[in-house]
Amino acid sequence: MGRDTRPRKSLGASLHNQIKESRVLMVGAGGIGCELLKNLVLTGFGEIHIVDLDTIDLSNLNRQFLFGMQHIKKSKAIVAKEIAGKFNPNVKLEAHHANIKDPNFNVKWFKGFNIVFNALDNLDARKHVNRMCLAADVPLIESGTTGYNGQVQIIKRGETECYDCNPKPVPKSFPVCTIRSTPSQPIHCIVWAKSYLFAEVFGTSEESTPELDPTEDSENAQEIANLKREAEELKNIREKMDSPDFAEAVFSKVFTRDINRLRSMEDMWKSRKKPEPLDYGKVLEESKSIDASISRNDQSKWSLAENFTVFADSLKRLATRMLELKATMKEGDTPPILSFDKDNEDTLDFVAASANLRSSIFDIEIKSKFDIKQMAGNIIPAIATTNAITAGLCVLQAFKVLQNKLSEGRMIFLAKSADRACSSETLAPPNPSCETCCVARLTLSADITRATLNDLIKILRSQLNYNEEISVLTGNQLIYDIDYDDNVNTPLKDLGFQDETFVTIVDDSDSDDDEPPRVNLVIAITHDPEMASDQYPISEPEKIEIQRKPRPKPEPSQDQDDNLEMHDVTESRKRKLEDGLTVLEDASARMRQIVPEDAGPVQKKVKVAETIVIEDDEAIMID
Ligand SMILES: Nc1ncnc2c1ncn2[C@@H]1O[C@H](COP(=O)(O)OP(=O)(O)OP(=O)(O)O)[C@@H](O)[C@H]1O
Ligand SMILES: [Zn+2]
């Protein structure tokens, strides 16, 4: 039997031919990516480009089956191409060991693909690919998994929701005072060790860490000022990294003196147990007989003396590394820093031991190094089966896209459920308030070495009828508004414009009853170095109509809210009868949001309607 016989038989000749002629892009060759690439290659997609910026790590091997021990430290994209290429010699594969945000992956490049598949693990890259696919008008199959949960979504400009149509949850942050003064749970001490102590001793200062939220403690200004002073002292100790007393200096500062200062604030301990400071000499004495190799025992909960040993030993290892980096520093280089990495033993040992020492001071439960690794790395174990099912669903959705049957495309959710692992809903239309996809678009060419911001603003006023009240942004950065005209005479190149830069024009005029402001205008400005020097440095825009923003919906009254709830319950009951399932609980479980760092889009209430059937033992169809 020829290689094509089975796919041709199960998919039909027409779809199979389309697949063979398709040029697709897969971004990310990790957990989902390895499974997806295998599917794409075996299905016979004509040309597949793989982009991944990372190299293979030991911890990837349990689920990223294209990789083996011999590939550790090699490029994921290149190894994935080599290994998956052997599955089907008829497929053309191209690997890019690079960040998808690199400027050479521009809109023109994206336009060269029939479908883009996201197999990523972070919001930032997902949002970038979403924007590029919208700009290039290429369909995107977005996917994400967390533990047993998975999600697949088709995104098509003007026809479906985009990745940004639903707001995404922001990562959890903790009030500074809980972390720095009044911890009550192991996670508080872990965040302290990772985002404060480690950052102050080896990395950048705490101000830049998203896990600490100073705003929640604004009424506690005095204490915040004290904490700042404490951090300052730690910076001075950092300068003595090469001294034999370094461990004692750090220990006595954070586990003795800082704790004594906290104890002196009587008000703080009226309803809490006072922390008990540690004494360096005493703990050192107790730990004399303990070998530093105890750090390899990551499953048990270390004693105070064991934690002390790991603290002192890992601090020494990290300090040595830092001093080596400093020694190779050239003049003018920015001073080196170390970053916390859950997969790096030195940084993990330091964070685990420091967190536990602090826990013992505040009478909080000690955790094993293994548990601390999960908590510090926000890890939800990746499950190979979830990735495999999700990757399979991505390809089934790609068939709908190729056949131009978006009305049959589904937003699919996977969950661990005794009833049904896989459920779905129809694809939702774009959210009219979405500032990423419900925008007007324009392409202009410019000689960015000559064209100034003012040249652009003049075009907006004269050709596109904007008034004074506009803001101009590149990405999230504001470069112009009515009160900020510092950049108007600066050439675009000096404002960071490259071969292709997107600017967003926001209509800031007040919404009146007749006319709400216009939707955002996204202009792709491409550099044209050949533009004649006597010509206006920006090309003439085509005439486009820029829609008005939707009017904000009035807040629902209490009565309406009640009705809504009634309606939901009735709907759920109805479905329960139709499906013979306990949908009410199930739906709320699916409504849980996937952890942002590792997620696809926000999950919503879903309709249970999908079935997967195996036909003639040959093809899996989703109906
Ligand atoms: N901006 C980007 N450009 C290219 N590839 C990216 C980008 N951001 C993330 N990736 C890749 O997406 C893949 C996501 O895979 P996955 O979620 O399995 O993560 P992982 O890093 O392999 O595993 P883990 O995080 O669990 O250790 C990774 O290989 C990562 O390198
Ligand atoms: Zn959108």
Automatic annotation (TrEMBL):
Residues of the active site: C177 (glycyl thioester intermediate)
Disordered: annotated segments: 530-580
A GO MF label: SUMO activating enzyme activity
Ranges of biased composition (kind: Basic and acidic residues): 540-556, 564-579
Example GO BP: protein sumoylation
THIF-type NAD/FAD binding fold domain ranges (all copies): 11-435
Pathway: Protein modification; protein sumoylation
Xref: Pfam families: ThiF, UAE_UbL, UBA_E1_SCCH
Binding site for Zn(2+): C162, C165, C434, C437
Domain Ubiquitin-activating enzyme SCCH: 296-373
Annotated binding of ATP, by residue: 28-33, 52, 60-63, 76, 121-126
Residues covered by the Ubiquitin/SUMO-activating enzyme ubiquitin-like domain: 445-528
Keywords of this entry: ATP-binding, Metal-binding, Nucleotide-binding, Ubl conjugation pathway, Zinc
SUPFAM superfamilies with a match to the protein in the record: Activating enzymes of the ubiquitin-like proteins
Superkingdom per UniProt: Eukaryota
GO cellular component term of the entry, any: SUMO activating enzyme complex
Family of the protein in this entry: Belongs to the ubiquitin-activating E1 family.
Assembly and oligomerization: Heterodimer.
Protein name: Ubiquitin-activating enzyme E1-like
Species of origin: Ascodesmis nigricans
Upper taxonomic lineage: Eukaryota, Fungi, Dikarya, Ascomycota, Pezizomycotina
